[in-house]
Amino acid sequence: MPNHPLIERMNRLQVGENSLAFYGLGQVGVAIRGPGGVLYIDPYLTDSDGGGGHLERVFPPPVPPGDVTNADLVLVTHNHVDHFDPDTLRPLAVASPGAHFAGPYTCDPAQAGIGGERWRHARAGEPFTELGATITPVPSAHTELEGAGSGYAFLGYVIEWNGVTVYHAGDTVIWDGLIEALSAWRIDVAFLPINGRDYFRTRRGIVGNMGVREAAELAEVLNVGLVVPTHYDLFAGNGADPGQFVSYLYRLNPDRPQKVLRVGELLSFIREG
Fold first, then answer.
1. The CATH number of the domain where 45 resides is what?
2. Full-model pTM
């Protein structure tokens, strides 16, 4: 059976030194192609609401989860269904039998039919190595820090792989200490949510993130090499305009590189210098 076209394109791609390739999956989901395989972060590839019902997506999944045959590692940032989706992870784990998974303590791998030997409890400040990459979980606050020590409910990940350092925030606001924690790295590529938070969405039970201005200013403070906005495109009632992000970032620093990554699009990044 032939691979799905998107999976086939990932598999054919050759990654050179000091480079990584990124494929947008929508929401905050991304697949990263490195020299040792493919790493997925928060793939949400169904319309599941986690309770047997359905959510209304703005666009269909770029690939059915059962067609993801090339996953080597899947990182989960937290237990909300658009990040930890058992209906995505269950068929993905079958299609990619060699894949390993990692996520915070709030995610129950048994819900996704993933055996404990394939699942790592990711703990803030405790790096681990997979695929030749060093992965360091860092706390996220969605919208508050929940947890302490190494046990946080929401995580982001710093991924050092093939000479490139990536920060994927998952869902977060800027919390006291985040800038100091991330300043330990020279971040080449940052994936930051921009959908924000407000009174009316909070009343509807929608948990928020940093907004357009905060994400742009965080990228500027950290001197990020390239910033990619996330969490603006999948649900009509919880989105943002990435054009506003680009415009505000340009006002801060017209030389700060950014990329609005379309679903299924390839972004090739080469670290120079």
1. 3.60.15.10
2. 0.96
* Number of domains into which the chain is organized: 1
SS3 per-residue string spanning 126-172: CCEEECCEEEEEEECCCCCCCEECCEECCEEEEEEECCEEEEECCCC
Q: Show the tokens assigned to 222.
A: 């950290």
Cβ(90)–Cβ(112) below 8 Å = yes
Q: Is residue 266 part of a domain?
A: no
Question: Is residue 201 predicted with pLDDT exceeding 80?
Answer: no
To the nearest whole number, what is the mean pLDDT of the chain?
95
> Which of 110, 39, 54, 100 has its CA nearest to residue 79?
110
Q: pLDDT tens for residues 51-86?
A: 999 999 999 999 999 999 999 999 999 999 999 999
Other Cβ atoms less than 10 A from the Cβ of 204: the count is 8
SS3 100: strand
Q: Which domain holds residue 78?
A: 20-260
Asked if 182 and 191 touch (Cβ cutoff 8 Å), the reply is no
